[in-house]
Amino acid sequence: MRYALLTVLLLGCDGVAFHGNFTPLADAARAGDVAQVRSLIAHGADPNEIAGQNNWTPLMHAIHKGQIHSVEALLDGGADVNRVAGDGFTALMMAAGYGYTDIVELLIRRGASPRLAGADGVRPIDLAVTGVPDIDRFTLFQCQTDTIRALRAADPNISVSPRALIWARTKRCKV
């Protein structure tokens, strides 16, 4: 009976992606467990170690889940605010694409560069304008005006790419 149950479970899970390669720090950051984030860093955890299938830093994992207090703890613990992750993006790019204005403002206060370009020359303002097609936070059809405003406040001379402007016009967003 046990073997039959085990076989059913194994076959029934075919194609399911398990995220077993998260580090304890990435897990704590995603969960918003600030005390654990601080403890792990105090005991030697690297706040810039990549983890998960996207090769993100703990900072990006915290942003992905909207955990601003984890973001603060990671920055306090030495996370590199401008580090480019395995997917070619920075924490500020992710926060801008998700429209997390409070996190965008925090990252900028802590030294994140709104001019730093990632994959294909995309910058945070371009992602704020276009949005992102993330299954957890799909923002492609949203006008993220407050996030754009925050990025422009940090750098009034920053321009939006022509490709992003086309998408903004399609969504009828004022940029």
Please give a structural write-up.
It is built from ten helices and no strands. Helix 6 (91-98) packs antiparallel against helix 7 (101-109) and helix 6 (91-98) packs parallel to helix 8. By secondary structure, the chain is an all-alpha fold. Helix content is 50%, strand content 0%.
Summary tags:
175 residues; mainly alpha; 0% strand; elongated; disordered N terminus
List the topology elements.
Layout: H1 2-12, H2 24-31, H3 34-42, H4 58-64, H5 68-76, H6 91-98, H7 101-109, H8 124-130, H9 145-154, H10 162-171
Q: What's this entry about, in short?
A:
The chain is mainly α and 175 residues long. Helix content is 50%, strand content 0%. The protein has helices spanning 2-12, 24-31, 34-42, 58-64, 68-76, 91-98, 101-109, 124-130, 145-154, 162-171.
